[in-house]
Design a protein that fits this description.
single chain; alpha+beta; Rossmann fold; Jelly Rolls; 9-stranded mixed sheet; 6-stranded antiparallel sheet; globular
C-alpha cells in the first residue's frame, strides 16, 4: 500500500521520500470490494505497461556531436532505466575491451542474491559482477539477469548503445554509464483487486517508485548527474499529475543534476477515452462501451469535478439494468445479472483523496459481449463535464472501446506530472505525429505533452545480440533522454551550470524546441511546445 508519512510499529514501512511510504499488506485473496472500502483508491498501487533507422539529425544531435567544441557523448553522466531489464551481454553495452558499461543492475525478480541495502528484495549486480560474468563461458551462471521482453534493452540502446557499423546502429550518448532496474511482475493480490489477468505483462507502481529511489540514491552516492527514462504508462488515475508516482517524479526533478523523461503513451487512436460536457435541462447523459468477448476482466474509471455529484446506472447488452448508484465516501456494490454471467463492482466515491474529485470505478467480471450503456445524472441539477478511461496498453484488447470516443486527454500517467519532461512521438519520415501517440492536455487543461521526439521505426538493440526497430512514445522518450544526458554533460560535467535541476533542464529543452512548422499554434495537444532540438537550444544560449 502507498501511504503518506507512514510509521509502522514493526518498522516495516519503507520511506521513499518525505511524503510517501510503502507498507506491505498480507492479503493473498482480497475481495474486490476491499478496494474502496478497506483500502482507499489512492493507496492501492496502479499497474503499468511498457510504452514503445535512429534519425539523430532530426533532433540536432548529429550536428552537435560533429562540433568538436561541443562534442557531447554523455561522458560522466548516469542514465537510469526502470523497465523490463537489459541484456547485459549485448555488444551495445560493452566497452572496446569487452567490459560492461552498466554500473549496476537491481533485478527485483531474482530473490537468490544480495538485495540492495535498504530495499529488502531482489538482487543487486555490480559492475564487477557483470565483468566477471562476461569473462565466463557461461555468463548467466554468474549473473542470471535477462530481459525476456526486450523493451528495456531496446530503450537503453537508443539512449546509450555503442556505435555498431555492422548493424548501422548507434545510440545517442555512447559514453554514458547505465544503472538499470529490472521490474518484477506484480503481486497476485494486486492483480485481483485491479481486475488484471495473471498472464498479462504489467508492473506495479510501488516497484517503480522503489526503482526510482534506488537510482537517485546511486546518483547521490556517486555525485554524478543522472537522467532517468520511464517508458511505462497507465490510464489509472485522475490525469492531473497528483497521483503518488507523478508527485514523486515532480519532486525528484527539483533536485540538482537529476532529471526524468516520461513516455506520453500510445492511446491516441485506441478509443479508450470518452469525454462529454453535459448542458441539457435534465442533466443526464448516456454513453456507450463496446465490450469484446476477449475481455473478461478489466476496470473503467469515470472522473468528474466539483461541484458535480453524479449517480450512475448501468445497462447490459441484454437490457438488464442496475439501480442508480449514488455517490458515497467508501461503499462498493456488487451486481450479478440474472440472465447472463456478468458481474460488476461499482465504487462511486464522492471524494477521491488525492484529487478531491469524484471517481466512479467500475470493474467487470465476465461481461457480456456487446454494447453496455451508462447513464449519468447530476444530483446537483447543474451542467457538468466528465471523463471516462479504459485501461492502457495490453491490459485489454483493441476490440473493447467507447463509441464516440475522444483522443484528447489520453496521455498516460505519470505523463501528466507537472515538472518532468513528457514526450510524444512523431514520424520523422513524414514529419507528422504518430496516430497512436496520446494527446493532451491534462484533465484540468495543463499542457502535456511537453515536446515531440522521433518515435517511428527507431533502430535499437534486441536481446541475444540482435538489432531491430521500435516505435512508440517509449522510443521517443529514449531519444529525449539521450538528448538530456548531453545537456547534463554540458551543464554539470563541463561546469557551465553545475547546479542545474531537472526542471531547469526541461524548461530549457522546451525553450529550444523547433516550432518552425507554421501549420500549428504552439503549444498544442499533439506536439506540445514543438520538436526536440538541442542544437537550436545551445545556439540560442550563444554557445
Amino acid at each position: 500500500m502507498l501511504v503518506r508519512n507512514a510509521e509502522s510499529e514493526d518498522g516495516q514501512a519503507i520511506k521513499i521520500n518525505d511524503r510517501y511510504s510503502i507498507i506491505n499488506v498480507l492479503n493473498p485473496d482480497p475481495y474486490p470490494c476491499e478496494l474502496g472500502e478497506t483500502y482507499p483508491y489512492h493507496s492501492v498501487p496502479g499497474l503499468f505497461t511498457p510504452m514503445s533507422v535512429l534519425t539523430t539529425e532530426d533532433s540536432g544531435i548529429g550536428s552537435l556531436q560533429n562540433n568538436s567544441h561541443l562534442a557531447l557523448y554523455g561522458h560522466g553522466v548516469l542514465v537510469g532505466l526502470v523497465d523490463t531489464g537489459i541484456d547485459y551481454r549485448h555488444p551495445a553495452f560493452l566497452t572496446r575491451e569487452g567490459n560492461s558499461r552498466i554500473y549496476s543492475i537491481w533485478d527485483q525478480e531474482d530473490q537468490n542474491g544480495i538485495s540492495p541495502e535498504g530495499f529488502g528484495y531482489g538482487t543487486e549486480y555490480t559492475n564487477e559482477d557483470l565483468n566477471l560474468a562476461l569473462q565466463s563461458e557461461y555468463p548467466l551462471s554468474i549473473v542470471p539477469c535477462q530481459d525476456t521482453n526486450g523493451h528495456g534493452t531496446a530503450i537503453a540502446s537508443i539512449i546509450a548503445g555503442n556505435v555498431m557499423d555492422s548493424a548501422s546502429f548507434r545510440g545517442i550518448v555512447t559514453e554514458a554509464e547505465l544503472i538499470v532496474v529490472k521490474l518484477k511482475p506484480p503481486k497476485n493480490n494486486l492483480r485481483k483487486l485491479s481486475f488484471v489477468h495473471g498472464d498479462t505483462e504489467c508492473y506495479q507502481e510501488t516497484d517503480i517508485l522503489l526503482g526510482l529511489n534506488y537510482l537517485t540514491q546511486k546518483a547521490r552516492e556517486l555525485q554524478r548527474p543522472m537522467v532517468i527514462c520511464l517508458a511505462m504508462g497507465s490510464s489509472h488515475g485522475g490525469h492531473i499529475g497528483l497521483g503518488t508516482l507523478s508527485d514523486y517524479l515532480s519532486r525528484m526533478v527539483l533536485n540538482p543534476g537529476i532529471d526524468a523523461v516520461i513516455a506520453g503513451g500510445n492511446e491516441g487512436s485506441s478509443r479508450r477515452h470518452y469525454y462529454s460536457r453535459v448542458t441539457d435541462e435534465a442533466h443526464n447523459h448516456i454513453f456507450e462501451l463496446e465490450i469484446s468477448k476477449q475481455d473478461t476482466l478489466f476496470g473503467m474509471e469515470i472522473w468528474s469535478e466539483i461541484p458535480a455529484r453524479l449517480a450512475v446506472k448501468i445497462t447490459s447488452p441484454m437490457g438488464e439494468t442496475t439501480r442508480f448508484i449514488q455517490p458515497q465516501l467508501g461503499s462498493c456494490y456488487a451486481f450479478d445479472f440474472i440472465f447472463e454471467s456478468s458481474r460488476i463492482y461499482v465504487n462511486n466515491i464522492t471524494l477521491e483523496k488525492e484529487t478531491g474529485d469524484q471517481l466512479i470505478m467500475i470493474r467487470f467480471e465476465n461481461p457480456s459481449e456487446g454494447i453496455w450503456r451508462f447513464r449519468l445524472v447530476n444530483l446537483e441539477e447543474e451542467d457538468y463535464a466528465f471523463h471516462a478511461w479504459l485501461p492502457a496498453g495490453d491490459l485489454i484488447s483493441e476490440e473493447t472501446y467507447f463509441l464516440a470516443s475522444s483522443p484528447d486527454a489520453t496521455v498516460t500517467e505519470p505523463g501528466n506530472a507537472e515538472y518532468p519532461l513528457t514526450v510524444t512521438a512523431y514520424n520523422s519520415l513524414s514529419s507528422s505525429t504518430m496516430p497512436e501517440s496520446s494527446w493532451g492536455y491534462t484533465r484540468n487543461n495543463r499542457i502535456t505533452p511537453d515536446i515531440a521526439a522521433p518515435g517511428y521505426q527507431i533502430a535499437c538493440a534486441y536481446p541475444d545480440g540482435r538489432y531491430g526497430y521500435i516505435s512508440g512514445t517509449g522510443a521517443a522518450a529514449a531519444h529525449a533522454t539521450g538528448t538530456i544526458a548531453m545537456l547534463l554533460e554540458w551543464a554539470v560535467v563541463k561546469g557551465y551550470y553545475p547546479t542545474i535541476t531537472g526542471y531547469d533542464v526541461n524548461r530549457l529543452i522546451i525553450r529550444g524546441a523547433d516550432r518552425s512548422n507554421h501549420g500549428y499554434t504552439y503549444p498544442n495537444k499533439n506536439w506540445g511546445y514543438g520538436t526536440l532540438d538541442i542544437y537550436s537550444l545551445l545556439r540560442k544560449l550563444n554557445l
